[in-house]
Design a protein that fits this description.
Layout (H helix, E strand, L loop, with lengths): L7 E7 L1 E2 L11 E2 L6 H15 L7 E9 L7 H14 L1 E12 L3 H5 L1 H7 L3 E7 L3 H6 L6 H13 L5 E7 L6 H13 L4 E6 L7 H4 L8 H17 L3 E4 L2 E3 L6 H7 L3 E6 L3 E6 L4 E7 L3 H7 L5 E6 L2 H12 L6 E2 L1 H7 L7 H9 L3 E3 L3 E4 L1 H5 L1 H6 L23
Parallel strand pairs: 1-4, 1-11, 2-3, 4-5, 5-6, 6-7, 7-8
Antiparallel strand pairs: 8-10, 9-10, 12-13, 13-14, 15-17, 16-17
Helix pairs in contact: 1-2, 2-4, 7-9
Length: 402
């Protein structure tokens, strides 16, 4: 049984982008014409209003605007969105509000307007500072634009910036991976998301895979070298692909890893809502296609709703929380699942016997071996009975790199 509801965030999905990248499997669509900003903001607010009975009296601790490329929306549209959000929701005093951006010139022109609207954290999708790599990755910016975007963000008043950077890129050498990261560090961002390029199904790279991807040994060398570089420059790894300085962890993403709740609005958005008084946890998924979403928002934009079973809750909690370098306090398991820890006790004992976790009764954390072989650790919890019945949605909601 739940004693109370977990913390609550809000995820807003803006699905359009200037060009679909060949490695991207997010719910995003190349904008073929003018984006229907006003209609989409109306749809978002209508959807949120419909969801309010599920979260009466609960404050919002964080907001994440993802995509697609949210920075394709004008500053005026974002300001209008936030005016509506504030009228409907109770923002926490220290709320973190993140917006994803690409480094294009038009995006950077909006930064001051986003900051004035209330966005206080910017996540810039740079991916590489090598123009050749950017071309291979299908990006629409070059390295010079990336540098200008960060400068523009600082000039607009942003003091909390994440830079997205990938390694193991086609034809990338060890020295090139290091140089890319060194350039990012020189810009002094508060947060760096550093992750390996992976080839996902339903992407252009999956159907036409680059021939010169680094092999596993080179990927591992790049990762080890880059991790050491980040550590030398004062960045701490708190999650598999997330590094920060001065306690600037992404609060929104920490809420995912801690298995907190989040409303999801926008085309294809996922949400997880705990109804503590009813001892229920719901997963809700919106219509994916923007046109269908716009037609149904505020009336019936929910494509599916599922009540999670106990074993689903246990598996999903462990899937997320074990991504954290410092793990989690054992009390958090009950607080955010409503279940006793003994539901997963046998799996924890197996993991400890294999040297994959440390478990002292008060905190569970991956060992160095467990953190470097995270898939092997997480798969132990697939033994939960209900987890075998159906695929489990990764509650990171495709935002884990930001």
């Amino acid at each position: 049984m739940f004693n109370s509801n977990p913390p609550l965030g809000l995820y807003i999905h803006l699905p359009w982008c200037e060009k679909k990248c060949p490695y991207c499997d997010f719910n995003s669509y190349q904008a073929e014409a003018e984006i229907p900003e006003q209609a989409y903001v109306d749809a978002l607010l209508n959807d949120l209003e419909q969801d309010l009975p599920l979260v009466w009296g609960r404050g919002i601790d964080s907001i994440f605007i993802g995509g697609g490329t949210p920075s394709l929306f004008s500053a005026a549209a974002i300001e209008r969105l936030f005016s509506g959000l504030r009228a409907l929701l109770n923002f926490a005093p220290a709320i973190e509000i993140t917006l994803e951006s690409n480094p294009g010139s038009a995006d950077a022109e909006n930064y001051a307007g986003y900051r004035a609207a209330g966005v206080n954290r910017l996540s810039i999708g740079i991916q590489s500072f090598d123009d050749g790599q950017l071309t291979k990755l299908g990006r629409v910016h070059d390295a010079a634009q990336a540098l200008r975007a960060v400068a523009s963000a600082r000039a607009a008043g942003f003091d909390n910036i994440n830079l997205d950077l990938m390694f193991a890129l086609p034809g990338q050498s060890l020295a090139q991976a290091e140089a890319d990261l060194a350039q990012a560090i020189d810009l002094q961002p508060e947060h760096i998301s550093h992750y390996q390029l992976t080839i996902e199904p339903n992407t252009l790279f999956h159907s036409k895979q680059p021939a010169d991807l680094p092999d596993n040994d080179l990927c591992a060398e790049q990762q080890i070298l880059c991790q050491a570089l980040l550590q030398r420059h004062g960045y701490s790894q708190y999650e598999v692909s997330a590094w920060c300085r001065d306690g600037r962890e992404s609060q929104h993403n920490l809420n995912y890893w801690h298995f907190g709740d989040y409303l999801g609005i926008g085309a294809g958005a996922h949400g997880k809502i705990t109804l503590a008084g009813e001892n229920r946890v719901l997963r809700r998924v919106r219509q994916r296609q923007p046109r269908a979403y716009l037609e149904q928002a505020g009336r019936n934009s929910i494509a599916s709703e599922t009540e999670l079973e106990d074993a689903d809750l246990g598996f999903e909690f462990m899937l997320n929380a074990l991504r954290l370098r410092q793990g989690f306090e054992t009390s958090l398991f009950h607080e955010n699942t409503g279940l006793p820890l003994n539901l997963v006790l046998s799996q924890l004992e197996t993991a400890r016997s294999k040297g994959l976790i440390e478990f002292d009764g008060a905190r569970i954390r991956p060992t160095e071996l467990g953190f470097s072989h995270l898939n092997d650790l997480q798969v132990l919890f697939l033994g939960l009975e209900a987890a075998k019945k159906k695929p489990i949605f990764d509650s990171a909601d495709k935002i884990m790199h930001n």
